[in-house]
Each structure stands twice: as structure tokens, then as C-alpha cells.
Here is the input.
Amino acid sequence: MEEKSIVKFKKDEFAIKEYIKSILGKGKVSKVRIEYTPVGEKVIVSTNKPGLVIGRKGEKIDELTHTLKTKFKLENPRVEIDEIKQPEFDAQIVADDIAMALERMGPLKFKVIAYRSLQKIMQAGAKGAEIVLGGKLPSSRAKSWRFQQGYLKKVGDSAKVVDKASAVAYTKPGAIGVKVSIFSPYAIQKDELKLDDEMIEKIRINYTTTEIEPEKKIKVRRKNK
Here is the structure.
């Protein structure tokens, strides 16, 4: 019974998140987090467009709070906005923007859209980024296209710091999948080595003071016949 209740709880939580993303619209919401406190539920919406999410005089927030109470049976929901200051480093925002651009401009200009988004990410200061588009681009057969620039971790524990997200663009030829991976400059790496002036000076001193042992002469003894 406990396992069933946990599954139901996670299912309801997922439904709330998907509903908030759909009601606010594609490209406006990156992540939705739900925190449970003794006084009620705190729903945190991460967005780069807080004005559009809040609405005039907070009317959209009021409507969303009422829906969470009536439809999803939350006791005391409180909606908070977490503004994303640099959307270029948010993979979900970038993936949604690419998907909307494909729907608006058409799949024939997918290279222009991908390269423009990649350039925007790298100019903002990202360490690396990758964009993968899959679908009928531009032929009648499905194909994957990969656009990458910079340095990107893909395996191991250090790859967990890479922000990844996906989106779907619905065009006339068919659906196009969008996958985005961004290596933010603010990501903390445990195996990262920073070479500052002090470290370089220590390496130089250590190298100059290290004595290199002279090569040992090998004596060859001849056996008396």
C-alpha cells in the first residue's frame, strides 16, 4: 500500500507540473518545483519572463492558485516566481525557443536556427553546448543533426553538472525532436584545475630546483674464454 501511495503521489505531482507548463505556454517556463511545508505547498516556477507569468496585477497567479486548490486538491498552495537572469544557460528555455522557431520559420531553416542559438549560448560565456535535432530535416526520411561547440562533459559524475533538456516542434512535415546540453561557466567541477599566477610560480620553482640524476654508466664485463 505504501508503494502505491508513493506512485500516486509522484503521478499527481507530475500532472501538476505538466499542467502549469501547458497553461503558461511553451518557452515561458523552465522548471516547476513543489516544496511541502507545514503551512502548505510552495510551487516554485522558474521562468525568464516573470511579467508574462504573473499577469496584470497577479491575475494569472490567482487563477493558477485557484486551479491548484480545486482541480488538484492542494490545501494551501502558494505560487512563487524564480526569475532566470541568464536564459542562455538554461537548456529548457533554449530548447523551447528552438522548437518555437522551427514551428514559426519551418524545418528548412533548421541550420540557421541551430547555429544562431549555439552562437548565442557561446557568446554569453558558456564552456560548451550541443544541439541535436531529429526528424525529417530536410528530406522525407528522419535524420539526426548535431551542432556542437566548446567543451562538454558527457560521461561520469562530472557530466551531471551539464544542464540537459528536450522539446518537440510540430511542423507540417512532422514532429522534430530538440535536445540541448549546456555547460554553464558557473557549473562547479570537482576535477577542475585552475592555474593562477601563484600556482605557475610554484611549478616553475619546483622544476628548476629538481635535480636530474646523471645517467648511470653501464659497465660491460667480458667473460674470459
About this structure: The first helix runs from residue 2 to 24.
